[in-house]
Amino acid sequence: xxxxxxxxxxxxxxxxxxxxxEHMREDDMSAMILGTGPDLEFFTGLDVSSHERLTALVxxxxxxxxxxxxxxxxxxxxxxxxxxxxxxxxxxxxxQSPYELIIRNLxxxxxxxxxxxxRGVGLGASLTADHVLEIQNGLAGLxxxxxxxxxxxxxxxxxxxxxxxxxxxxxxxxxxxxHARVPELLQPGRTEAEIAEEITAMILEEGHVSVxxxxxxxxxxxxxxxxxxxxxxxxxxxxxxxxxxxxxPSGYRSDCTRTYLVADSDPQVITERVxxxxxxxxxxxxASVKAVRPGVTAGEIDRVARDAIAAAGYGEQFIHRxxxxxxxxxxxxxxxxxxxxxxxxxxxxxxxxxxxxxTGDVGARIEDIVVVTExxxxxxxxxxxxxxx
Length: 389
Prior knowledge:
alpha+beta, Creatine Amidinohydrolase, Chain A, domain 1, Creatine Amidinohydrolase, three-stranded antiparallel beta sheet, 18 strands, disordered N terminus, aminopeptidase, protease, hydrolase
């Protein structure tokens, strides 16, 4: 277990535990049980490895919050952090039932007068099925049901604080520094795998503590949005999609895509068809970024990008949503997708990444992380987007 933030920001965790209570009460949720993963990290700052022994944070509407953890994992860092944020630590030994400890320490409404009338106890998405079933069995004895905690947590997590925004800005600047070094790697004859290995090292050199993904998709491989890398060799005149990201020491993520031309910046080596496709993509991405502001829906941002691409005849080649939220995980709320009615608020951070893909032939994508401000948008990635530098 490691702490994900410095001592100067300890109070943010107790503030978050307090803030979620309002959302829980609005949803008639008496308690929330969160397993290891980003939600537990968000509320405690503890990055806990998941394994078969249950570790869970329990946040209660009417009772003390507590952390159930195997005694073997309840070391000094965990004891100090839980004490700092006012969360009771309950270690459990092998042979004990952590589920019984959870039920025993839950403060639930009085069921003497007909049972609990609210929605029940919220369960976090990272709890595995075996843990969920054991918790459900215990709650049944209290006349309590289970609901998903995710939608309630999303309401809090998707609006970032100033501190979180600055962490994301630092992550964006770090991945921009990596992209600044990428063009020198894209030489004809080199394999995607060779380039990906060097990019991986660069991500760590530029301030990340871990690498989440490296996509190097050359030529037809660029038409697969979730391609990784392969032994395919780069060729002069083709596009290369480079989508990369990682985590800072704080746990906050970077994610940025640029499409490059293998050509030593010579415009004569690219076909007019591919150049037209890329120009359409550039305009669509710029238009959708410009559309970001408080009060519009996430679906509207997606529509701006989709309409611009469709108007140029490439609608069927835009095969994914326009973006996703980012924070302690690379993909989180809000979803910038067709039909989404999530209303953008200041502090929301997400990607804007339309793409155009011709399967087996060529693809391109441009991605920036943006933050909604009081009067518009702030870009967290600022490397050039043109094919010709």
